[in-house]
Amino acid sequence: MCIWQEVKDQQGNMAIRLSSTFRENLKVAILGGGRPWTMSATLDSDPHQRNVEFLDKYAMDRWESVLQFLVQPGRGQKAISRDAMRTLLHAGLIESSGESDNMQITSAGFQFLLLDTASQVWFFILKYLETVTERGMSLVACLTFLFKLSFSTLGKDYSMEGMDNELLTFLQHLREFGLVYLRKRSSGRFYPTRLALNITAGQNKGIIDVPKQGNLIIETNYRVYAYTTSELQISLLAIFCDIEGRFPNMVVASISRSSVRRALLKGIGAEQIISFLKQHCHPQMYKLSSVVPRTVADQIKLWEMERERLEFTEGVLYKDFMSLHDFNLLSNYASSNGVLIYSDERQRTMVVTKKGHPSIKTFWKEEQAK
């Protein structure tokens, strides 16, 4: 990484010398100094000051609109911007269905929905950054600004003074995703939200994740009670549950073999389902020895294992042998070469691997020539 290099001192002993650029910036990082960031310019007090509670609600409303579109791409395409839709398409979370412009969620999209919020935002931003050069923007400038945001203070407003059109466009996109709050472009200030602060949190993302109250009660009889009115939460639950009843503030669902298999066919794993239940369980569930009842968790894993009982191998079928001698000749040859997958002497049928087919074919022609 060229942070240091080995040199010899005046006495001829081996020594290590720090890179001059790294050395100067290390001094700034430890002792302070350097040039101030553009977004840290001094501002007058905001007459429309926003508190942390408002910013959290705004961020989750904006982010949930993206997730809601992902759950039901055919509905409410005006709910999210074209930039968000373009990122979802690039990430492979949605795809065009047939010749029409209708969108549908992919297997990767279903798996994305069951991730925690911080992981979702991190994946989404990574995919967005892969497209910034196509939008005529600088990847370095966007990354630099993102890292600055991650060091900002929640609830504090920052100046937009000195930002070029490229950064202003990037800021507008972050606003659409819920990473910053911008009342209007002419206000000259913006507020980073908790989603922006999570960007560089790494493995500690759960500590500063967007706070949310769990609403799921899971019983040992596979019943799930969700105390929510959110259409998004109900849609997520319906991915691996059968919805049995809806009330003004509660939904009754059940986990069954067919509902779990439905989710498994979409590429969602048992661990993802169990993790989702743990993340969204009601605080009362934490008083139990196991947040998700062990019988439920084990059964979901068993249903997943059912799909792994069969192993599929691509091969070539040989049949209609004229004599048992011919069948045994080829079967023994295929077996000795380790390419025989299946053999039935009574039906005179065998299957060999695709890779072994040419050698079997050559061997048979040689035998016929004899």
Automatic annotation (TrEMBL):
It comes from the Eukaryota. The keyword DNA repair applies. One of its GO terms (molecular function) is ATPase activator activity. Residues 298-365 form the Transcription factor Tfb2 C-terminal domain. Signal peptide: none annotated. InterPro entries: Tfb2_C (IPR040662), TFIIH_p52/Tfb2 (IPR004598). The keyword 4Fe-4S does not apply. Its main location: nucleus. Keywords: DNA damage, DNA repair, Nucleus, Transcription, Transcription regulation. Gene3D superfamilies: 3.30.70.2610. It is found in: Nucleus. GO terms for biological process: nucleotide-excision repair; transcription by RNA polymerase II. GO terms for cellular component: transcription factor TFIIH core complex; transcription factor TFIIH holo complex. Component of the general transcription and DNA repair factor IIH (TFIIH) core complex which is involved in general and transcription-coupled nucleotide excision repair (NER) of damaged DNA. Component of the 7-subunit TFIIH core complex composed of XPB/ERCC3, XPD/ERCC2, GTF2H1, GTF2H2, GTF2H3, GTF2H4 and GTF2H5, which is active in NER. The core complex associates with the 3-subunit CDK-activating kinase (CAK) module composed of CCNH/cyclin H, CDK7 and MNAT1 to form the 10-subunit holoenzyme (holo-TFIIH) active in transcription. Belongs to the TFB2 family. This is General transcription factor IIH subunit 4.
